[in-house]
Amino acid sequence: MTKLNTYLANLAVLNIKIHNLHWNIVGSQFVSVHEFLESEYDKAGERLDEVAELIRMSGEFPVANLKEYLEISTIKEIETSKEVSIKEALEIVLSDIKLQKELALEIRKEADEADNFPVANAMEDHIEDYNKQIWFVESSRK
Q: Which residue range is the domain that position 100 belongs to?
């Protein structure tokens, strides 16, 4: 469950990080990117609860405090609030989505090997969505 708790911590940090970008982006595509970022932090929040419940169903305890989230997360928070260009915001989100996808792939593989179908299925759903978001962001950056 170590990787699943890392994934959970990443979701928590990502949720706040995307809020920061959502509030502070500037640029000619503001409205569309602002709305995209809102949908992304909503997803991170929903997944946070989903993953915590998967950890509990496995008899373990999810990490549930900010200090531990920051200690074990592989996604780094944005240190300072400031204006962020559309291009920079999309690069940050793309990098973090790719990182989450890779971790989800590792977790899915381990869950498959352990016949932990609820975790494997959840990660499969997340991976599918990450693929779509990577395509969306990469297409938006052209």
A: 2-140
